[in-house]
Amino acid sequence: MARPDPALLDPARYPFGNSVTTRFADLDPNGHINNVAMAAVFEDARLRFITAVGMPKNADGARFMVANVTIDYLAQAYYPAGLECRVGALPGGRSSWSLRQLLLQDNRPVATAQVTIVFTDGERPQPIDPALRERLDAWLIR
Amino acid sequence: MARPDPALLDPARYPFGNSVTTRFADLDPNGHINNVAMAAVFEDARLRFITAVGMPKNADGARFMVANVTIDYLAQAYYPAGLECRVGALPGGRSSWSLRQLLLQDNRPVATAQVTIVFTDGERPQPIDPALRERLDAWLIR
Amino acid sequence: MARPDPALLDPARYPFGNSVTTRFADLDPNGHINNVAMAAVFEDARLRFITAVGMPKNADGARFMVANVTIDYLAQAYYPAGLECRVGALPGGRSSWSLRQLLLQDNRPVATAQVTIVFTDGERPQPIDPALRERLDAWLIR
Amino acid sequence: MARPDPALLDPARYPFGNSVTTRFADLDPNGHINNVAMAAVFEDARLRFITAVGMPKNADGARFMVANVTIDYLAQAYYPAGLECRVGALPGGRSSWSLRQLLLQDNRPVATAQVTIVFTDGERPQPIDPALRERLDAWLIR
């Protein structure tokens, strides 16, 4: 199992949270929540976080694209208990920004993720609009 | 869209309920919750219902197998609102029993399902144990 | 397990076929391909069939909507072998049509499905265009 | 989009390959293969690679656990074309080993992944058996 920075395992550091219910179809042959199902839960929390931040929609011209997802699997997760996903932004670059995510079950960390999102015009990276940058800065990891 | 029996659309008739969160990955290219994702939500509620009923586990020798799933899709469901799945048993046969399910979003019916489950010894249908039948009868649709 | 009409189990009766690869994520805790994963394979074959028929796209104004899906589960399917899904149309109604599907693994029937699709203007059922009806009739189950 | 090491984009460097069919349910609201569906395809190829290597089963006592998955998303993938996933091992550590994966569609790289797998006794990391290490070394990235 991965050994993440203990500071990443404190839910209170993440300003955003989302609770999800697990599903029977998330289970793998070992009776654990499948790693890919955890990736879907991280993705879902990401989308809800982006909505909370007030990100412009992709259809508005500018488009953000997920460039990288890194997941550390720390412990098995089970069914039927739910999962809580904490999310916070990291200080960003010129045309990209990253967020950190912590997944817990019954207050026990089961995985962390770091995701890098790039702003583009559909083809090439574009500088992030200062107003959006300001909104993101309101959701930084503490 | 299907036109189900209006009596099936009354949530109060179903003795069991389960709330699930939708996920971004449930969405199809039309921006609706995919039909297959709805099938996963029905399946999940079914498993939780079976646990509530106190069904013996498959590992205990007797095994139940889903023989038929029939889903009527009534209306589109959306993200990110959650879904509520109502479940109740129907009076059963000798070696099988059926359950009815109603899926709602924001109190609006979006799908119904009927599922037939057969008890087997792994190979052939077996009569349902009277004690289990009695437990099932406590969860009949009203 | 369901006992379908034996005539439905003959792959040669279905004019269309699609081979899919199974995935580890399709497995359930019993080590079988999950019922919902089979529903996804049926859905996928349906979309490919619709493309082969030359169905107008939903975006073209007329829209088709899946109103009912009925699946009979006949036998367990396993990983990592692939699945073959056979598809054929049934003689249709005025504003709807149905198709039949047969899912096989290693030439062994594992499930059948019947699906009813309704043509609408987005809200109400609409008569099916005669040219489309003619194309569908070229793909009837034999 | 991520800019990976160009050397990682050459399929010929990866000794193992697996072709998968895409499914309609893989599509996201933008009409692209969803990032999580790509993660499922990487996972599936990983399992098939592990079988080809001749990895002992988890049930045999020793257990391997995925500790980290890192995916670089390079380009959109589409439906209904299939995907090809290339896989190769990296020279490993004492109790863990890593593999590299390249996902292509129509010979176009769409994503890369690096995965670290840890051998454990169910709880703690264990040294990898020399015979298994030898088998892994036969599947190194060229």
Question: Could you please describe the fold and organization of this structure?
Answer:
Four copies of one chain form a homotetramer. Chain A is α+β, with helices and mostly antiparallel strands and 142 residues long. Chain A has a single domain (9-137), classed as Hotdog Thioesterase (Thiol Ester Dehydrase, Chain A). Chain A has helices at 35-53, 130-137, and strands at residues 16-20, 63-73, 83-90, 96-105, 108-120. The first copy, chain A, has a five-stranded antiparallel β-sheet with strand order 1-3-4-5-2, with helices on one face. The mean pLDDT of chain A is 91. At the A-D interface, helix 1, strand 2 and strand 5 of A face helix 1, strand 2 and strand 5 of D.
Please provide a brief summary of the model.
The structure is a homotetramer of 142-residue chains. Chain A has helices at residues 35-53, 130-137, and strands spanning 16-20, 63-73, 83-90, 96-105, 108-120.
Tags for this model:
five-stranded antiparallel sheet; Thiol Ester Dehydrase, Chain A; alpha+beta; 19% helix; 142 residues; homotetramer; 2 helices
Task: Give the total of domains of chain A.
Answer: 1
CATH superfamily of chain A: Hotdog Thioesterase
Spell out the helices and strands of chain A N to C. EHEEEEH
Give the helix proportion of chain A (percent range).
10-25%
Amino-to-carboxy terminus distance of chain A? 26 Å
Radius of gyration of chain A: 16 Å
CATH class of chain A: Alpha Beta
Mean pLDDT of chain A: 91
- Strand content bin of chain A: 25-35%
Q: Largest chain-chain contact?
A: A-D, 22 and 22 residues
The number of helical runs of chain A is: 2
User: What is the fold-level CATH name, i.e. the topology of chain A?
Assistant: Thiol Ester Dehydrase, Chain A
Unreliable runs of chain A, pLDDT <50, ≥5 residues? none
- The tally of strands of chain A reads 5
Structural class of chain A: alpha+beta
Any idea what the shape of chain A is?
A: globular
Biggest β-sheet of chain A: count, sense, barrel?
5 strands, antiparallel
Multimerization state: homotetramer
Gross CATH architecture of chain A: Roll
Strand order of the largest sheet of chain A: 1-3-4-5-2
